[in-house]
Amino acid sequence: MNLLMDFYELTMGQSYFNKRMKEKVAYFDLFFRQIPDKGGFVIANGIGRCLKYLNQFSLSTSDIDYLKQNGNFSLEYLDYLKNIKFSGDMWAVEDGTVIFPNEPLITIKAPLIEAQLIETALLLIFNHSSLITTKTNRIVRSALGRSVMEFGTRRAQGKEAAVEGALDAYIAGAVGTACTLSGKKYNIPVLGTMAHSFVQSFDSEYSAFKAYAETYPNACVLLVDTYNTLKSGLPNAIKIQNEILKPLGKNLAGIRIDSGDLVRLSKSARKMLDDHGLQDTKIIVSNSLDEYKISLLLEQNSPIDSFGVGENLITAKSSPVLGGVYKLVAVEEKNQVIPKIKISDNVGKVINPHFKNFFRLYDKNNKIYCDLLCAYDEDLSSKLILNGESYVVKNIRRKMIENGKIIYDIPTIEQTRNYLQDELQTLPKDVLKLETAETVKVVLSEKLTQIKNNLVNSITR
Fold this sequence. Notes:
Elements: H1 7-18, E1 25-31, E2 42-43, H2 47-55, H3 61-70, H4 75-82, E3 89-93, E4 98-99, E5 106-111, H5 112-117, H6 119-142, E6 147-150, H7 159-172, E7 176-177, H8 180-186, H9 196-200, H10 205-215, E8 221-223, H11 229-245, E9 254-257, H12 262-275, E10 282-285, H13 291-299, E11 306-309, H14 311-314, E12 325-333, E13 336-339, E14 356-362, E15 368-375, E16 383-386, E17 389-395, E18 397-402, E19 405-406, H15 413-424, E20 441-444, H16 446-460
Parallel strand pairs: 6-7, 6-11, 8-9, 9-10, 10-11, 15-20
Antiparallel strand pairs: 1-5, 1-12, 2-4, 3-5, 3-18, 12-13, 14-15, 14-17, 16-17, 18-19
Helix pairs in contact: 2-6, 3-4, 6-7, 6-13, 7-15, 10-11, 11-12
């Protein structure tokens, strides 16, 4: 990932270097402006991977050779880049935190060139990971406690998207993934049974099912829609139970339906299975599912136990971009933090300036009341009284890197997975809606509001 950066970051770095600004300390915020799928929140993820990236940030000899051949950079600048490491500080929310627009989710304090060169990689890691985690969690919540399996490897936008996306899906609540490499790399559950090609490879559907049942009698799940789900697949699956599995003291674990009218087929399949004493056999469905289709299936009382979700999950197909941005918000001059602002004719693109503290207020039911952004030198007590109501106040960001060294214990995958579930419990009911969701208010302190207004006025008047 050494040169995983936009070229303009390097050209800006050359100009900073020429102007002897390489040691100037800058503060950058990473944040997003809009929630995908018109939802109520986003789930932060990828922070741990950002930490690991910053910990190894450097340019190799071959990188420097390439930049030298490019012809846009001075030898003095390239000599500087030979030894570049991340030497700054980083504050961030933890992976699994629920977050909202325009909040400083990551703040970098570092020498200007360092802070500029890491922009693209941080955005790439955070944007993709948070997007897939958020999308998967929407799908998981739509399943109302039924299991969701990540089946999207072959439809992902490249290897890294498949492997890392499977991890993000698991953190978000999926029970496992079809991506074997993710299982190896991250020790998360891998799942899978058969494809239609397996059934087609045998002389008959029955012989295909028999071969699979004899190979995996303890976890036999049969794909029943290759030819005709109700007239062929289900009868053959029941026959396998009676002739192969039952004599071994085993039961048919499940059937999977991958096409057709899933409401009608699942209801008919459930009745056939129950009539033959297979009440414990699970019904699994797939076929271009997403949170909306799953909700519709369950609204029609479809007796489905598990969902396999592929392309709509791994690509976040309905809203495939989390538009996270990375903006300069302050610089240091003579040991003073000087706020900076970007303004625009588009009001939504006017940033919140300055090095900030980020507090979250919880009501008496431990539900989020609002998020409060303050100037860095403002602090709040652990409790706050507003309009006669008492709120618990938490600073939800942590300092994770200091002087280039990681000072934060990166949680395990399971710890992050559990933390996310705890975070969801703090959201008001209307924020959890899949459609027409409300969101949590993000407000600025009086001091930060005044700083922002003064900056806007000084530029626009």
